Amino acid sequence: xxxxxxxxxxxxxxxxxxxxxxxxxxxxxxxxxxxxxxxxxxxxxxxxxxxxxxxxxxxxxxxxxxxxxxxxxxxxxxxxxxxxxxxxxxxxxxxxxxxxxxxxxxxxxxxxxxxxxxxxxxxxxxxxxxxxxxxxxxxxxxxxxxxxxxxxxxxxxxxxxxxxxxxxxxxxxxxxxxxxxxxxxxxxxxxxxxxxxxxxxxxxxxxxxxxxxxxxxxxxxxxxxxxxxxxxxxxxxxxxxxxxxxxxxxxxxxxxxxxxxxxxxxxxxxxxxxxxxxxxxxxxxxxxxxxxxxxxxxxxxxxxxxxxxxxxxxxxxxxxxxxxxxxxxxxxxxxxxxxxxxxxxxxxxxxxxxxxxxxxxxxxxxxxxxx
Length: 371
Description:
Layout (H helix, E strand, L loop, with lengths): L2 H22 L4 E5 L4 H10 L12 E6 L4 H9 L7 E6 L2 H17 L34 H5 L9 E6 L1 E14 L6 E14 H10 L3 E8 L3 H11 L4 E7 L7 E7 L2 E8 L7 H15 L4 E6 L7 H10 L8 E4 L17 H8 L16
């Protein structure tokens, strides 16, 4: 490894981040997305630099990741706001959260919310701009500034129905200081545990965090994990839980063991089972009732048995004709049963299975297209 090159890159990162922090000013937000080691360290050093270390009460830091790591927690969420400000940890999938966050920011700009700090109404000469002449963010290329200034009427929160496989994600945190005597494996001394919704439940959490009204449709088992998941999804801001308890099922649980910011092991607890006839009937009825006032339907299929053919087909026969079904995220190879969806988001393996072709890294398809 070229040490000089590594040092040059670190200095460049530090200089860039320091310049960005200085430009954020009051009301600034720093989002750490996924970086668990280097960037949190560089950010803290840049934040404490004499020219940028002034603490502002309205400075906000955010850590966005799948699990809690030590360095982002200390260097992004905790230390920068000791003397004022706020911090927030957001747990979820980057491929879902980041596009939704970008869309929320664009909608905020379209509605006339000026993200600049207070005092930005002053023109370069120091004179205060008259009311109603706020400069605001620049318009998109080709759009007159007068049109960009006009704000659309306030938008009401979108109501989204999310139907699919509900799971529980647990993370067990602890310390490892020795090896177990009975086998050469790390011995985790458990110190804390966190829970969050997984699968379709994670989609519900993300939408609720962005201000949407959500309806969670799914099935869980009768055990404590299923009861926690049912209560949690029903208590989200703007959330409505229509979760069916099926005594013939078990709630899928994924447990991750973490020490010093590193995942040591994952244990999956699940017994594949289809919905009982009674649970399927209850879920279909709840779905049709929820869709009567919804704008969006998302189907999240992890092959756990919730989205039976009848559950998938019911919205097309029972929903009002005006509705569209915009998005379907599926883990199954049988994508064609979702025919009619506005958008389907399989992963790479599923796409190769259903099309018989492998996508190239350049984004183009290998082989000739099929008719």
